[in-house]
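Hey all, sorry for the wall of text incoming. These are the two entities for the joint prediction.
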Amino acid sequence: MKDALIPSALPEEKKASVLVKGERVINFPLENINTFLTNSIKTCKYNCLTFLPKNMFEQFSKSANVYFLIIAILQSVPQISVTGGIPNILLPLSFVLTVSAIKDLLEDIKRSKSDKEENMRPILKRVNGQWATVRWSEIRVSDIIKVQKNDFFPSDILLLQCSDPKGMAYIETKNLDGETNLKHKLASKETQTYFKNEASYDSYTGTVKCEDPNSIIYQFNGVISFKNISIPVSNEQFLLRGSSLKNTDWIVGLVIYTGHQTKIMLNSASARKKTSRLEGQMNNQIIYIFLMQLALCAACSIYYSYWYYHNRKVTDIYLELVTSGESSDPVYQFVMQFFTWLLIFTNFVPISLLVTLEMVRFMQASLISKDLKIYYESDDIPAGVQSSNLNEELGQVNYIFSDKTGTLTRNVMEFKKMSIKGMKFGENGHLDSDKKLPHVDFIDPNFDPTNYEFSDFIVHLAVCHTIITEEKDGVIEYKASSPDELALVNAARFFGFKFISRDSDQNLIIDVSGTEVRVAILNIIEFSSDRKRMTVVIRLPNGMHRVLCKGADSILLPRLRGGPYIEETYKHLEEFACEGLRTLVLAQKDLTENEYKNWNLQYIAAMKDILNREKRVAEVSEYIERDLELVGATAIEDRLQEKVPEAIKSLREAGIKIWVLTGDKIETAINIGFSCNLLSNSMTRIIIEKSSTQEVKEELEQGLVLTRDTSTGDYALIISGESLLRAAKPELAPILVKLTDYCRVVLCCRVSPQQKADIVKLVRLSKPHSITLAIGDGANDVNMITAAHVGIGLAGLEGSQAVRASDYSIGQFSYLQRLLFIHGRECYRRNATLICFNFYKNVLLVIPLLYYGMFSAFSGQLLYNMWTYQLFNIMFCAMPIVVYAVLDIQIPHSELQSNPEFYRLGLHGKLFSTSIFWFWVLEAFVQGLIIVLMSIFTICMTSGDKYYGQMDNMYVASKLIFGLVVFLVNIKVITFSYSHYWFSILISLLSTLSYIGFTVLLNDYLPIYTWLDNYDSRGSSVKLLKNPNTYSAIVICFFIGFMIHPIYKAILTIRSIRKLHRTKVANEPSSSSSSSDSEEKDPEIVVPEIDISKWEITPDKEKWKNKHTGFAFSGEAGHAPQVTDPEYYL
Amino acid sequence: MDAEKSNKPGNSALKQQKLKSWSFKMSKIVLGFFYIFCGSFFLIIGSVIVSESNSVIEHKLRYDNVDACKADWKTRPLCTIKLELDEKMPSPVFVYYEITNMYQNHRRYNKNRDIKQLMGKTQSKNDIDSYCDPVKTMGDLGLIVNNYYLNAKSVANPCGLMAKTFFNDTYTINPITSGIAEVKISFDELAWETDKDEKFKNNDNMHLQWTDVENQHFMVWMSTAGLPTFKKLWGKIKHDLPKGQYAITIQNNYDISDFDGEKAIIVSTTSGLGGKMSFLGILCLIVGGISFLGGSAVVGLGFYLKKIKGISID
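and here's what came out:
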């Protein structure tokens, strides 16, 4: 180790284990039954009584809803009310609240159903010397329960005894982490024997001391004491709720944690809510719109106060403003008028926007998950959407942070090459599929597996692993937690050493050319990401003990005793790494009986130390994992997923920066980089791998100087995890960010899960205008996925943790292209338009009232019927935009998919900005003006009746104004839609007709009531329809209102043509401006001064281009068969 | 794989977004032609509206500033003005009055009535309080009450500012040199059907009312005008008015002097599109013209660029 790593580099789990302080002490039988929680769970938020208050409280914690509630209160104040004291904003508000509440209720019913189902499940519990069937919810801490084969564990329980005489039980944790392999659990020997007789459960008294409930899944430490003896218990005896019993007839266990204190429940805390950038921008605009509303209210009120002051006397004859004795104080008038206008302008803030957006996103999400083109047939994985409120974010991604293994590659390992005793075996070709074993793709006619020389190697492959087997229909299936091990064991099988199973004594049964051989496994020291190696101790038939160890070269090579072939093997390892293969070194050592016994005592002591077990086991294992003898090296290929290079190419052409974050070594990463099109030979690679701050700084500066010279083409930055720790420090981070700006590709190697997240955060922080996307498949990507703006989980072999933490999940990396290019881009485009349109339609609805103020002394005349006004957003103009936002297609999907240029639209945020937003608002202002002038002058200036000569009143004009607003709004959707369906046009038509129908019904057929507000406007809608001028007004209003935009566009076109023409004349070849778009530069980043002269001579391109080689290793801790107490089997 | 358990999405057109759709994409040239078409359309409509409007014969006579009516109008309200027709006005001929600068659409004014009372229901003082303030009692109306049922403290019926300020000028038209004996002005079709049928009903006990709400002049007045300058129908002449001179005798009661208003009487015929209105027709002509020229320019430029310079503008 060089200088000390900062704590954040430690794996998350370790940090957490330090955090659990408290201790739970369970005496049993329990004196007080209420000491602990019951086992019933309740994930639903509401019940019949609490639903309404709770849900309303939640909804009214949104500021928009509070705003509308205040409006409702103001509406019921008669002095200022424009609706006759009727708070009719409650109509759309309650509609919006109801829609949200129904959504919440449905979700909650679903939860409550599953709660009920869970709580009602039966389980056997020891009651009065008998096994009684009780419900899960009736289980309490310290109960003794019996779980049968294939049943789920009702709570977190301590394994006391199981049907297997040795105490071995198998469990499946599919529901917990998605892994389908079976895991071992082992009852402690003492409990297993003590409880042989069932009656002993009933007389049993004792204590369990363990950790307080905590969320760390793979950790449990405790002591169970009875009859004056204490037995340490650990994760090996700990069965989690959510997992199920397999291959074991029954187990008996002691309930430790119940209900909401079980680990799975503690883990299901809801993730932080992510909000899309578009939504953030939208919220800003809401504030501006609201400010504009206040300003307009103030302006109108000031005008009225002025008018009032000057005209109150002269108009007294009919308004009696003076006579009535009302206060003539202008301030009083201003305040009253201000609130009146506030009520009139209420709809500037679109009441239905959030609900519409939510509905639309939900439907968009279901279309994403229904897309057959991103459905992964071979694993039956459709795309999944966990948080649909990020749909539009997918269309604006600037940075992609990708994991490598399992994300870019298949995570299906195939044994490809090996090196034994200085000899390299394995050719590059592929094996015929009929000869092929799964996970083996080895060809070499020169290799003779029966040669005695190689037997050590093959035995090592067959023995040193943690795989367990399951027999299904006579076929042996290997269940492995690490795909690398699967490849190795299958390779052994390929060479004639077929691993059949483990027997109950943990002997491995291996079929060597027809004869079964048993190998006694004494100890297994698991793989962990810190140790980067695993070790197995076996007893040889001759009584000797042998240590078999495999691991990463960097770890194992220093532990070798020294020997003849190390040099050659190292060379082979380099070659393997260059080809992008994952390498492992195998080593072994023999121990004498005594040596082993001494060591084993220490090992057992270490295992019994509950608090420091991991640390002590690591120390003890160091003792036997040294002076090893080299056995050989293996090379495993992890093939790229389909179409990864193409997808990466397209994504990069779209202007997205791709960073690969991997745990692999630099060399492996570089090779993968080449094979998936990230790197090319024309690129200059800047490699930063030093491990002291000063050196890293120098390397960074050197790189920065190098990139000044733009003539040499593209640059790629490759940085190791250790260097990154330093480079990400505050003083160096600006240089790093600057350097990455110049590099087309960034590869980060040897990074820990926490570092992955840190890198994402670094970019988020230094590039506040960028959107980051993280994609990964494993538990180690979870941090990164939650840290990024958008997290994508790849549903793959490594369990479902990444998927559950993610916002979207897909089956293949290449689907990302379609997800972004088609769904993301289109959702961004449509949702941006949806938001603008929602403001547009509300401004267009409200603004005629402002203009009409000019004709009514800004007295606060509410021109519209108040119910019609409130139905606008939930009936007349609600649906067409929803259809648009879900189904509109601007460019055929095939073109969107194949042409990355189209993605830049969202990348540069071209569809939603303050200026675009206000252009929409401006359009509404202009159209509103046209509508008001047209309607008022057409209707109120003269009679529209040939035979009766009757004049139309204000209400007829108001019907026309409102009708034109509805008409224009519904037509507007059609004008900006790119694709029209029969039903979309029908819905637009019906929406418009619904207004006519409603207004005719209200004004001519419904009886007259004060609260309906239909007295004054009685007959006005029919009058309007009978007036011939109405139709001319509609047509011309429509024409003027909508033809402004095309004219404006035509002018732009002509200008651009003239420009083009001029450039052609000047004979300048027009450069493709879009592709040379420069990256946004952030002025906030201050790059420290760099002394260029210091580096002027240094850049030695050849040095950077040197090919490096390296090695890889993967695996996961926690799945070894739990053979920690070898004495037990003796 | 278990077919039932497969997560494979369905292959329907909706789910795969393959529904049949159209898009109206127009090339710039086609758009130009579209503008020419629309322009022509509006030019035609505009011409029709203008010619219809021009066929209307309308005479507007302002009388509040005429000497005969101005002097001592409060004590001697009767005055006469002259109407000269240089062509025949075919029936029906409508008589309107016009008032300017009066905000009937002021928020305080047009809601100042009690709708139940107008619909014939007897309302108590409390009932009308929130609607008719400050004109709630007969006293508030400032009327000299001669009906013995009514006194200054009883509920005003109809109440409210709007009713109180009911327009009460009246007109009679007498032919002078036109060859007809008299001009009959009828008042039976002034208000809307809905006004007569639903909105205005006299109380069963007519004595409670200070005026007849079923009077169509009242109904017309109560129908809020949309602009501060408004005209309202006052009468209908169901026979032709031949060419010649007429004398209009005005009962000049209504006070508009405080707010600088003007009063006028309008005698007008109608066309197929109603009364005289140049605004809409002229607007159509202007818009049509601009659209036609704009469209022609786009088409012309498009062809020019395409043919001569080889540049496509799409």
